[in-house]
Design a protein that fits this description.
Layout (H helix, E strand, L loop, with lengths): L4 E4 L3 H9 L3 E3 L5 H6 L7 E4 L8 E3 L5 E4 L4 H6 L1 H6 L1 H8 L4 H6 L2 H5 L51 H8 L2 E6 L2 E6 H4 L18 E7 L7 E7 L10 E10 L2 E10 L6 E2 L1 H7 L8 H6 L15 H17 L3
Helix pairs in contact: 5-8
Bound molecules: iron/sulfur cluster.
Length: 326
């Protein structure tokens, strides 16, 4: 492991100052420490942020729910306000990683966790994300786990988070603190598709810290849930997943929020599926008709063509499940 300096911050401004001078934030350490051991990440300094006061789950302005960035995945998953109002978030968290990791990993870190592409983690492989301009070993390699949506000729890695898929479906907003003060950004705008610059994974400014995430109030009345399809039932990343949130008024679907995981270079909102649902009365056949739009724009690779029908079926099954509760 590359030698590094360790510093523990007690205030947010102190942590931000350290990050501005080049330190990497560390909280649960469930991504960064692995990558440092594998020499994929070689920071000269890390700033420990676990003592910062960012561990609250509380009501926020206009009825939204605030989840502090240092709340662990396990705490968020089991909190009554999350479980009661946003089952899709609880279910996505409980489908993630292992119980041990969920006790350590934080919500903020989960959103910024780095891809599980095995070529990214193998420092002998070509990888534009790890080393810009070096190529992409996955394009002509073994790409069964890789993305089919939002891909580019530079990178086809999936975003690994489950809960980010649920948050994107609900239109959640991240709260940020940097040297210029605070700002807010929809999560869907924070995470970047690879394009020709896959090493740029997010829209954070230099030294900026995620301090929390807010789920808007209007989504708390939605019936919602998360379905994850994976090779084994525990401690495995998604092949496909679907976060679904629906609301019915006067017998018609008035709100439909649908996003997919395991298939996109970022958590992927399925707007074509949503459009096929809004205004409709639930009926036999509606869910499968809408789910057919899930793969619009998909670009499969040699080994992951199976994700096309799997994604359609995942979305259909979760729409059927949630639609049945309306
Ligand atoms: Fe690297 Fe992306 Fe290619 Fe994986 S898919 S090898 S992360 S450039």
């Amino acid at each position: 492991m590359h030698p590094f300096a360790y510093h523990s911050a007690t205030t947010v401004p102190e942590a931000v100052r350290a990050a501005v001078r080049g330190a990497r934030y560390i909280a649960g350490g469930t991504t960064l420490v692995d990558l440092m051991r594998e020499t994929v990440e070689r920071p000269d300094e890390v700033v420990d942020i676990t003592a910062l006061p960012l561990k609250e789950i509380r009501p926020a302005k206009d009825g939204a729910l605030h989840i502090g960035a240092l709340v662990t995945m396990a705490e968020a998953a089991t909190h009554p306000a999350v479980r009661g109002r946003y089952p899709v978030v609880s279910q996505a968290l409980e489908a993630s990683a292992s119980a041990q990791l969920r006790n350590m990993a934080t919500i903020g870190g989960n959103l910024l966790q780095r891809t599980r592409c095995f070529y990214f983690r193998d420092v002998s492989a070509a990888c534009n994300k790890r080393q810009p301009g070096s190529g992409c070993a996955a394009l002509g390699g073994y790409n069964r786990m890789h993305a089919i949506l939002g891909v580019s000729d530079s990178c086809v890695a999936t975003h690994p988070s489950d809960v980010a898929v649920a948050f994107v479906a609900l239109g959640a907003v991240v709260q940020l603190r940097g040297r210029d003060g605070e700002r807010r950004l929809p999560l869907a705008e924070l995470l970047l598709k690879p394009g020709s610059t896959p090493h740029r994974e997010h829209a954070l400014k230099e030294g900026e810290l995620i301090t929390g995430i807010e789920i808007p109030a209007h989504t708390r009345s939605l019936a919602s849930g998360y379905l994850k399809v994976r090779d084994r039932q525990s401690y495995e990343f998604a092949l496909t997943s679907a976060a679904v949130a629906l609301h019915l008024t006067g017998g018609r679907i008035t709100t439909a929020r649908v996003a997919a995981g395991g298939v996109g270079t970022v958590p992927w909102r399925l707007e074509a599926v949503e459009e096929a649902l809004v205004g409709q009365r639930p009926r036999p056949g509606l869910w499968s008709e809408a789910a057919r739009h899930a793969t619009r724009g998909a670009r499969p690779l040699q080994h992951n063509r199976f994700k096309l029908p799997l994604l359609t079926r995942t979305v259909e099954r979760q729409l059927t499940e949630i639609g049945g509760t309306l």
